[in-house]
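User: Batch of two.

Assistant: Item 1 of 2:
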Amino acid sequence: MTSSFRIWLDAARPKTLPLALVSIITGSALAFSKGEMSWSVALLALLTATLLQILSNLANDYGDAVKGTDNENRLGPMRAIQSGEVTQLEMKKAIILNVVLTVASGLFLVLHALESLQNILAFIGLGVLAIAAAIAYTVGNKPYGYVGLGDISVFIFFGLLGVSGTYFLHTGHLDTLLFLPAIGCGLLAVAVLNVNNMRDIENDSACGKRTVAVRLGERKAKLYHFALLAVAVSAFAMYLSVQQSPLWISLPFVLSLVVVIKHGTAVWQTTQPAQIAPMMPIVVKCSLVTNILFSGVVIAQTLIT
């Protein structure tokens, strides 16, 4: 692996990519349960979501570096610009290239999946909003991530729109109960962001980055984290419980409760932000495992009944 490739691979932060992919997996599994899943739509949606997540990571690297939030006091992994391996100009070019690729992938997706001009235009509009949200989180004069609005954005784009949008691309319609898995997926994505913000709570506060964790304080941020996890798992479980299938098919989903409780307990027992740092890959795995177990149960319910 060349040095340049490694630098840009690290800047893309591949360990965070499951955060974007799980909403596509969940939405596709729900479409499968209706007999309307398209593999080509699923693959194109996965590609577009991956590019959007990478765009968000690159823009975050750039925005925090420009504002001085990425400094020697930050507890997370070294960022590309912060390390000096990538200049601000190089990162700008990478962001522009990623925007072009994301737009191309997104356009191909909606044109392939949708027929109605109205639906195509609506999804193009949502795509523009998603790109703008990915960049404006830390970039610009008034980045919304610095005033505590990141959680809302993540909930909407990685949950509500991610799951329901994917389902619509497959089926061409929405379902009343979609809001339950969409909420579950979105709240787990917010939990990932919350771990990130709890880890950086001291440095963010000193730099004027008023995340939800900073606003709540360490103890209340932990309680908030528990609430995110509990409501997320409950939302998934509620969806499964109302399906017309034997209860035993849903039992594997109980494993997600074990994973989530173990993670939540570990977070609660931390006494300083530095101890939160190792929790980042774990909470991403919690989101991945929970969504995959849910999707697996949905598929099993469909095949058996």
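Item 2 of 2:
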Amino acid sequence: MVEKTTRQVKVSADPNATTSKPINGNTAKSSIKSILITQPKPENDKNPYFDLAKKHGIIVEFKPFIHLEGVLAKEFRKQKINPAEFSALIFTSRSAVDQFFKLCDDLRVRMSPDAKYYCMTEAIALYLQKYILFRKRKVFFGDGTFQGLTEIIEKHRDGEKFLIPCSDTHKSDTSDYLRKKKYEFAEAIIFKTVAVDLTEEEIRKYDLVVFFTPTGVHALKQNFPNFRQESIRIGAFGPVTSQAVIDAGLNLDIQAPAPQSPSMTMAIDNYLNRNS
């Protein structure tokens, strides 16, 4: 389950004028004093959203609209995938490691000691020691980027058959890469995305709600099929998420990335500077 606690920051403002333009013809509204980021709360205070709150004297809180639940063994069997038939696995999170090996236990599947593991980061690679005998020639890790992951696959690949444990709403970057290279692989859905229960009062507390995935937008509409945006501003990161907002019949006020605002914090900063 994703943590539902929120983080609040409120300090004095320091606005600077710049430009930002709403999409869908949203009319002028009152100034923004509170923002909801639909992501988990950062683990520490070294986060650009906290800097943004300090600069503008606003409240920033974090609450995901979705969380991931591990699929049960009986659900996994419907995919007709036997993990033991794959010689290499690709992990992008520690939670995926936990859920994968839990499913292996439930399915009574034992991975070959010769299986290779390709991990997004060193932390994930080291975490594997909880489940396997760690051998440097069998466990490889990147620098936390997609490019780093593809580099270790290219460097250490030797005719492997890859399995990608993932969620039902995962990004397709890794699969697209393997498909382009014509490598043999399969996706194993080990998590399902579930909407968090919300109340409309929780949403109405905020002047701006920021989405990062289409599933977050879908969760809003699932909780409130007749949701009326009214004075709430909406931000979206990425073209797919932005389109989901528009398809939901909502006004999109802040969009990133853009040439002048490659990050969401920069896009919000530009908007606040113009509308303060």
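Residues 175 and 187 are 8 Å apart (CA to CA).
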